[in-house]
Amino acid sequence: MSKPDTVEQVGILRYFGDPMCSWCWGFKPVLEQVDREYPELKRITVMGGLRGGSAGPMSDELMALVRNAWMRIEEATGQPFNHDLWREHRPLSTTLPACRAVLAVRLMAPEKEWAFMVGLFGAYFTRALDPTRRETYLDVAGSMDLDLEAFERRLDSQEVEGALHEDLALTRKFGITGFPSVVLSIKENNYLISPGYQPIEGMRRAINAAYEDAGVEFTRPESGLYV
Is residue 134 one of the residues assigned to a domain? Predict the structure, then answer.
């Protein structure tokens, strides 16, 4: 069986995440491996809004919780974390400003949305930059040759606010309560592929099981790559 000619022949993979989600950073290599192994799936990134609330700084309790999570995730996934951040910054508790920055890029240059989110991951988790400061968003946008004046205008726009409300509503519609989460939509059916972090082997099993249930025929070697 040959690879389908168009992504519409299989389905849409919705990735629900947040640029300040530590497990999302740990999941990044897995998600990008899925992109390589299942090119017939159209992936859509949805801002889930890890933490809303007021724009006050992280409490001592929240900082300790996140710092401890970094150590567990680093050990579990092998993804690097720069723990200097906690000596240099006290980010805001809300993650919505970082979500808005990703959405600003989506509206400006949708083909760069994922690259920008990866850039924010790197700024926060490996470069020890505060992920809730505008300077960080401009730094990442500048590294991607985006129009900084246009980008900064977008950050404060009603269009970005509307896009955020739409993404948060979609997250609620799919019943997503933790990040990262992945849902595969084939025809009229939605399959929860990953309710949280999962290694590539589990992703393959879940996607292939969804294909079987949906009657999608495919041929892959054990590695998951096309012949």
Answer: yes
Give 23-55 pLDDT, tens digit per residue. Answer: 999 999 999 999 999 999 999 999 999 998 778
Q: Is residue 227 part of a domain?
A: no
State percent of the chain over pLDDT 90: 85
Tokens of 223: 């590695």
* Domain residue limits at 36: 7-214
- Look at the alpha carbons of 140, 144, 145, 146 in this order and tell me if their dihedral is positive or negative: negative
CATH code of 187's domain? 3.40.30.10
Question: Is residue 205 domain-resident?
Answer: yes
List, as one string, the DSSP characters of 110-153: GGGHHHHHHHHHHHHHTS---TTSHHHHHHHHHHTT--HHHHHH
Q: How far is CA 99 from the centre of its chain?
A: 10
In this structure, the number of other CB atoms found within 10 A of the CB of residue 170 comes to 17
Q: Distance between CA 121 and CA 119 in Å, rounded?
A: 5
**Strand arrangement, sheet containing 181-186:** 41-47, 11-17, 181-186, 189-195
**Structural domain tally of the chain?**
1
Residue 182 belongs to a domain: yes
- Helical spans, DSSP H, in the chain: 22-37, 60-77, 85-88, 96-108, 113-125, 134-143, 148-155, 158-173, 200-214
Residue-averaged pLDDT of the chain = 92
For residues 187 and 12, give the distance between their C-alpha atoms in angstroms, rounded to a whole number.
9
What's the mean pLDDT in 76-84?
97
